[in-house]
Amino acid sequence: MKTTVRANWTDSLKRGKGEFQSDNPLLNKVPYSFMKRSSGDVTLPEEFLAAAHAACFNMTMAMLLSQKQYTIESLDTACTISYDSDQVTHSELEVSVKVEGLSDDELQAIASEAKKLCPIGQAYSFPSSFKIAAEVAE
């Protein structure tokens, strides 16, 4: 499988702006910027890193839990990307799990395995970690 997204940029770093181009209509023409970091009307590249890591981790957890015949009510993962100057330094996942009959020990083991298997997490050269909390589904 291959996925291609084109990122177009015009003007200088501080005055410029960018736009993604993709065959996926949800991503096509999505704007991004450097200077509008808190405006909310454009995306930031680090938001895509966070979204990709959180989604991939959830899908990897779902795969592992399903293989062990657990019934998943929900997996909710927040990803915080930390950066300093011009370098991404860390990705932290905060995971909340509602799964019927899952012990904390089993959850920790599955989450550790998911961290190892998550393709997006594997692609990062910076450190990643996770905090996980379980709520037993009834």
UniProtKB/TrEMBL annotation:
<dbReference type="InterPro" id="IPR052707">
    <property type="entry name" value="OsmC_Ohr_Peroxiredoxin"/>
</dbReference>
<dbReference type="GO" id="GO:0004601">
    <property type="term" value="F:peroxidase activity"/>
</dbReference>
<dbReference type="InterPro" id="IPR015946">
    <property type="entry name" value="KH_dom-like_a/b"/>
</dbReference>
<dbReference type="InterPro" id="IPR019904">
    <property type="entry name" value="Peroxiredoxin_OsmC"/>
</dbReference>
<dbReference type="GO" id="GO:0006979">
    <property type="term" value="P:response to oxidative stress"/>
</dbReference>
<protein>
    <submittedName>
        <fullName>Osmotically inducible protein OsmC</fullName>
    </submittedName>
</protein>
<dbReference type="Pfam" id="PF02566">
    <property type="entry name" value="OsmC"/>
</dbReference>
<dbReference type="InterPro" id="IPR036102">
    <property type="entry name" value="OsmC/Ohrsf"/>
</dbReference>
<dbReference type="InterPro" id="IPR003718">
    <property type="entry name" value="OsmC/Ohr_fam"/>
</dbReference>
